């Protein structure tokens, strides 16, 4: 009997925790289908006539459409370039650099220490003076700091987990360094590398400060979303909810991947 | 020879881009911090250390320093405490792998949210008139609480959101780490009749010392990027009660009159403080965990 | 022709020299085993011959061609790794065929040779599988097939059996040996297991601390160890050692330690003079319960008997220190009883106490 009560209590506590984790998100999704009059109620409503009004408002709003487009281009290109430069560098760092390895890795890590304002302030002046303020290319350039360093940081362990003997076996069959990298290290490390790219994607997709500072018309979705607090007189909660949902969707798609990534990292990190 | 060429061509492009960008921003900030450049006028003059001098006498700057420090401590400690407590709790009460996986999936969702989105979600929940939380407190008989408008509460209300994202995320990682621990020492402790909390306090947590420290470090670095959350939720207000250093630097440099040189001096100081603090912490940790 | 010649090999990591001035010749068709404790440099030697490790100084030639600075793929050698190093993202077929494809061998020819090699090793049914779906023994065979198909001038094996269980290890050991008898390809095989080395090698190169301690056929190494280290490393159960003083009487020398008195012909050994102190080694397998007329009898109290099946190892307390010998008649012995056992004078090994070298004249 006592154990039954204890089990029920602990079940209840866990359920509450899951609720705390998910309810805010679910509530927002629910809110995005509500008319304003269903939101502005003293008692929260669960039963209402759903509407797509908020989404149509949003998708018809040119600044949000542009923001979405800009986000896709800026994040896509900067992650792609991050992978292009970062992954080969991570491979060489993992395999062929011995004495300088710690220094180089610390340099990469120290870029993560750098406060974003410390990047934003000088770049805004340089961009204004050189005329690339408010361009996609300008944002992509500063995002490269994040993407390249994050990709390197997360991919070095992925390559270190590729058994060295496999690469040596390939060398015995006459493969050049580049071939070993492309035909062996890359496909074997691929699952972990993909995880590191997803992580990088989420990081840049969610970025606000640099985009807010270095762009005006051509800003990304977080900037646009942050600015719709006041469309007209009333606070358009339904529209805010809907734009939040759009902002949230792409990263949430990757939740399963992130889980697998954590499992691999943890499993091999503790040998 | 062929190998050296390969190593050079894989490392050089990535590291030269990183080095140039890092150098440009640091050198740029240093350069502008000794000028009197503002965004409105393209001309500027050398003013020496004037900006730094003014900073040290700027009460709003000192306030931001204090807020940043509180923010760091609260969010790092909060996330880790939540993670340790919840992971041990789940580890002890949930045996089925499927339930654990479901819990993990739920706990991972918040951290994936863009900070802007998380900020909106919680601003909505915190709202005194139509927020869910105040409705619930109202049912319990508390009057509407001004979570974000009360200067005493605002910073902690925002910190809760940060801990909601990171504490739950770290819970998943800690749970996975607990699962990978060898069973033998835990079973040995059970044979010695240790209580559950004793096992975790004296056996499992000491075994996880190194990963917990690195989680703390990751969180400390991540907490420096509080801008997005605070900017959307309170904008630094009410007053300056949630204005951290990066927020003040942004307000001074870009929003209010664009005193970029002043903001540059601030970001240089910020850079200096974080570098010094992190190097010290890094060394301390190495000594301590060695 | 694929003889191997290593001349004045040196290997340093940073300022730390692990191998210095090592010379080694291996003749065509020979099966050579590098044997030694871990860290003795045997794997480093193998990897330098393979080209996976840079050679700090000296030259390596394979079949008369200097390969010192050639990349591994151009040396005409194939290697089987300890972890097998199969390509996890390729099927067994692709694993085996990869090397030939790189050499632009026509597809039909590849198919024919893969079939031939895989049938030889019993892999016919497994060609479409991925390595992770194979057992350890099967993975090991795929690794061998991958090495064999290239018809290399030289096979290198780096502890290929140490990840397998005892039974499979024995089976594959025989297979490797049989394969060598058939193909006659020059082979270098690295192991730390002395029993494996004894059973498989034409010649053992026993290494210690980056230098060759002794090389020779398994019998030479077992019967005439050149140093105390070799004597101790080879043979199981391990050799008994006693420090003895020497008394020379005419053409006989007597070795004395406590109650032990062993007589050996003095002329077979160098430096045996009265009053000298030497280290004497006695192999347990070369001793037995004393029979009528035996000289060199040792007596003691039986401490313990270890049943090894057809033989037993008897551990005996002699003057307060333990010695052991092996006998088939172990079932008649009981712990606690007094026992006399003896050794043949030809099997007494005498080593210098200064440098550990054997004092036997013929042993170099």
From TrEMBL, chain A:
<dbReference type="Pfam" id="PF00528">
    <property type="entry name" value="BPD_transp_1"/>
</dbReference>
<dbReference type="InterPro" id="IPR000515">
    <property type="entry name" value="MetI-like"/>
</dbReference>
<keyword id="KW-0813">Transport</keyword>
<feature type="transmembrane region" description="Helical">
    <location>
        <begin position="180"/>
        <end position="205"/>
    </location>
</feature>
<dbReference type="GO" id="GO:0055085">
    <property type="term" value="P:transmembrane transport"/>
</dbReference>
<dbReference type="InterPro" id="IPR050901">
    <property type="entry name" value="BP-dep_ABC_trans_perm"/>
</dbReference>
<keyword id="KW-0762">Sugar transport</keyword>
<feature type="transmembrane region" description="Helical">
    <location>
        <begin position="106"/>
        <end position="128"/>
    </location>
</feature>
<protein>
    <submittedName>
        <fullName>Multiple sugar transport system permease protein</fullName>
    </submittedName>
</protein>
<dbReference type="InterPro" id="IPR035906">
    <property type="entry name" value="MetI-like_sf"/>
</dbReference>
<feature type="transmembrane region" description="Helical">
    <location>
        <begin position="140"/>
        <end position="159"/>
    </location>
</feature>
<comment type="similarity">
    <text>Belongs to the binding-protein-dependent transport system permease family.</text>
</comment>
<keyword id="KW-0812">Transmembrane</keyword>
<keyword id="KW-0472">Membrane</keyword>
<keyword id="KW-1133">Transmembrane helix</keyword>
From TrEMBL, chain B:
<dbReference type="GO" id="GO:0055085">
    <property type="term" value="P:transmembrane transport"/>
</dbReference>
<keyword id="KW-1003">Cell membrane</keyword>
<dbReference type="Pfam" id="PF00528">
    <property type="entry name" value="BPD_transp_1"/>
</dbReference>
<dbReference type="InterPro" id="IPR035906">
    <property type="entry name" value="MetI-like_sf"/>
</dbReference>
<keyword id="KW-0812">Transmembrane</keyword>
<feature type="transmembrane region" description="Helical">
    <location>
        <begin position="103"/>
        <end position="125"/>
    </location>
</feature>
<keyword id="KW-1133">Transmembrane helix</keyword>
<feature type="transmembrane region" description="Helical">
    <location>
        <begin position="153"/>
        <end position="178"/>
    </location>
</feature>
<feature type="transmembrane region" description="Helical">
    <location>
        <begin position="7"/>
        <end position="32"/>
    </location>
</feature>
<comment type="similarity">
    <text>Belongs to the binding-protein-dependent transport system permease family.</text>
</comment>
<dbReference type="GO" id="GO:0005886">
    <property type="term" value="C:plasma membrane"/>
</dbReference>
<dbReference type="InterPro" id="IPR000515">
    <property type="entry name" value="MetI-like"/>
</dbReference>
<keyword id="KW-0472">Membrane</keyword>
<protein>
    <submittedName>
        <fullName>Multiple sugar transport system permease protein</fullName>
    </submittedName>
</protein>
<feature type="transmembrane region" description="Helical">
    <location>
        <begin position="260"/>
        <end position="282"/>
    </location>
</feature>
From TrEMBL, chain C:
<dbReference type="Pfam" id="PF08402">
    <property type="entry name" value="TOBE_2"/>
</dbReference>
<dbReference type="InterPro" id="IPR012340">
    <property type="entry name" value="NA-bd_OB-fold"/>
</dbReference>
<dbReference type="InterPro" id="IPR047641">
    <property type="entry name" value="ABC_transpr_MalK/UgpC-like"/>
</dbReference>
<dbReference type="GO" id="GO:0055052">
    <property type="term" value="C:ATP-binding cassette (ABC) transporter complex, substrate-binding subunit-containing"/>
</dbReference>
<dbReference type="GO" id="GO:0008643">
    <property type="term" value="P:carbohydrate transport"/>
</dbReference>
<keyword id="KW-0472">Membrane</keyword>
<feature type="domain" description="ABC transporter">
    <location>
        <begin position="4"/>
        <end position="234"/>
    </location>
</feature>
<dbReference type="InterPro" id="IPR013611">
    <property type="entry name" value="Transp-assoc_OB_typ2"/>
</dbReference>
<dbReference type="InterPro" id="IPR027417">
    <property type="entry name" value="P-loop_NTPase"/>
</dbReference>
<dbReference type="GO" id="GO:0016887">
    <property type="term" value="F:ATP hydrolysis activity"/>
</dbReference>
<dbReference type="GO" id="GO:0005524">
    <property type="term" value="F:ATP binding"/>
</dbReference>
<dbReference type="GO" id="GO:0140359">
    <property type="term" value="F:ABC-type transporter activity"/>
</dbReference>
<dbReference type="InterPro" id="IPR008995">
    <property type="entry name" value="Mo/tungstate-bd_C_term_dom"/>
</dbReference>
<keyword id="KW-0813">Transport</keyword>
<dbReference type="Pfam" id="PF00005">
    <property type="entry name" value="ABC_tran"/>
</dbReference>
């Amino acid at each position: 009997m006592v154990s039954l009560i204890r089990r029920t209590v602990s079940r209840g506590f866990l359920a509450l925790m899951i609720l705390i984790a998910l309810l805010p998100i679910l509530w927002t999704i629910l809110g995005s289908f509500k008319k304003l009059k269903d939101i502005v109620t003293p008692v929260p409503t669960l039963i209402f006539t759903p509407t797509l009004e908020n989404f149509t408002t949003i998708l018809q709003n040119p600044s949000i459409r542009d923001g979405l487009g800009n986000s896709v281009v800026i994040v896509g290109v900067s992650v792609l370039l991050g992978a292009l430069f970062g992954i080969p560098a991570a491979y060489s760092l993992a395999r062929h650099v011995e004495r300088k390895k710690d220094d180089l890795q610390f340099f990469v890590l120290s870029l993560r220490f750098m406060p974003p304002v410390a990047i934003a302030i000088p770049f805004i002046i340089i961009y204004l003076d050189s005329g690339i303020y408010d361009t996609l290319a300008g944002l992509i350039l500063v995002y490269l700091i994040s993407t390249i360093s994050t990709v390197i940081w997360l991919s070095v362990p992925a390559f270190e987990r590729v058994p060295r003997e496999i690469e040596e076996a390939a060398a015995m069959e006459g493969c050049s360094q580049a071939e070993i990298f492309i035909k062996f290290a890359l496909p074997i490390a691929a699952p972990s590398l993909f995880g590191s790219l997803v992580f990088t994607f989420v990081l840049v997709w969610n970025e606000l400060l640099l985009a807010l500072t270095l762009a005006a018309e051509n800003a990304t979705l977080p900037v646009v979303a942050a600015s719709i607090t006041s469309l007209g007189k009333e606070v358009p909660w339904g529209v805010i909810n809907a734009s939040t949902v759009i902002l949230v969707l792409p990263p949430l798609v990757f939740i399963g991947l992130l889980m697998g990534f954590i499992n691999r990292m943890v499993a091999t990190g503790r040998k | 020879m062929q190998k050296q060429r390969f190593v050079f061509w894989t490392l050089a492009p990535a590291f030269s881009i990183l080095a140039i960008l890092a150098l440009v921003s640091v050198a740029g900030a240093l350069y502008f911090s000794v000028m009197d450049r503002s965004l409105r006028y393209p001309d500027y003059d050398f003013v020496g250390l004037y900006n730094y001098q003014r900073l040290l006498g700027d009460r709003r700057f000192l306030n931001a320093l204090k807020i940043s420090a509180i923010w760091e401590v609260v969010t790092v400690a909060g996330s880790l405490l939540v993670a340790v407590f919840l992971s041990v709790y789940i580890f002890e009460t949930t045996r089925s792998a499927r339930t654990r996986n479901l819990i993990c999936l739920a706990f991972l969702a918040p951290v994936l949210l863009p900070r802007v989105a998380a900020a909106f979600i919680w601003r909505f929940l915190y709202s005194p008139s139509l927020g869910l939380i105040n409705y619930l407190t109202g049912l319990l008989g508390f009057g509407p609480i001004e979570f974000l408008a009360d200067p005493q509460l605002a910073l902690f209300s925002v910190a809760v959101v940060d801990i909601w994202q990171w504490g739950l995320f770290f819970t998943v990682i800690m749970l996975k780490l607990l699962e990978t621990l060898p069973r033998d020492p835990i079973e040995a402790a059970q044979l010695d009749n240790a209580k559950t909390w004793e096992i975790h306090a004296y056996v499992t947590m000491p075994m996880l010392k190194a990963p917990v420290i690195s989680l703390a470090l990751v969180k400390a670095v991540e907490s420096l990027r509080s801008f997005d959350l605070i900017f959307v939720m309170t904008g630094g207000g009410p007053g300056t009660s949630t204005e951290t250093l990066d927020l003040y630097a942004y307000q001074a440099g870009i929003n209010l009159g664009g005193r970029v040189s002043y903001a540059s001096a601030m970001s240089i100081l910020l850079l200096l403080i974080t570098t010094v603090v992190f190097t010290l912490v890094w060394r301390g940790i190495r000594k301590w965990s060695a | 022709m694929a003889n191997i010649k290593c001349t004045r090999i040196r290997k340093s990591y940073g300022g730390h020299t692990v191998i210095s001035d090592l010379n080694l010749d291996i003749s065509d068709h020979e099966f050579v085993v590098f044997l030694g404790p871990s860290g003795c440099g045997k794997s480093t030697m193998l990897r330098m011959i393979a080209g996976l490790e840079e050679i700090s100084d000296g030259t390596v030639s394979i079949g008369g061609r200097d390969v010192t600075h050639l990349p591994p793929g151009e040396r005409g050698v194939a290697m089987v790794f300890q972890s097998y190093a199969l390509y996890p993202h390729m099927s067994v077929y692709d694993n085996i065929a990869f090397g030939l494809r790189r050499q632009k061998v026509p597809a039909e020819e590849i198919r024919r040779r893969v079939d031939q090699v895989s049938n030889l090793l019993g892999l016919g049914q497994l060609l479409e599988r991925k390595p992770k779906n194979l057992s350890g023994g099967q993975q090991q065979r795929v690794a061998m097939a991958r090495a064999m198909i290239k018809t290399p001038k030289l096979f290198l094996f780096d502890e290929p059996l140490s990840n397998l269980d005892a039974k499979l290890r024995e089976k594959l050991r025989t297979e490797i040996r049989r394969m060598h008898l058939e193909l006659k390809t020059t082979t270098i095989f690295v192991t730390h297991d002395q029993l494996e080395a004894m059973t498989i090698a034409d010649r053992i190169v026993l290494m210690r601390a980056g230098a060759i301690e002794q090389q020779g056929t398994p019998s030479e190494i077992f019967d005439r160890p050149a140093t105390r280290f070799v004597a101790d490393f080879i043979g199981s159960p391990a050799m008994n050692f006693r420090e003895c003083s020497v008394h020379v009487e005419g053409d006989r020398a007597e070795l004395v330690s406590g109650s032990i008195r062993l007589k050996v012909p003095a002329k077979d050994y160098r430096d045996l003079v009265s009053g000298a102190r030497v280290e004497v080694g006695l192999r347990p397998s070369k001793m037995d319960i004393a029979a009528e007329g035996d000289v060199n009898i040792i007596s003691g109290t039986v401490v313990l008997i270890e049943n090894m099946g057809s033989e037993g190892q008897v551990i005996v307390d002699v003057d307060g220190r333990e010695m052991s010998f092996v006998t088939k008649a172990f079932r008649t012995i009981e712990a606690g009883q007094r026992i006399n056992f003896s050794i043949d004078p030809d099997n007494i090994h005498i080593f210098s106490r200064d440098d550990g070298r054997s004092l036997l004249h013929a042993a170099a």
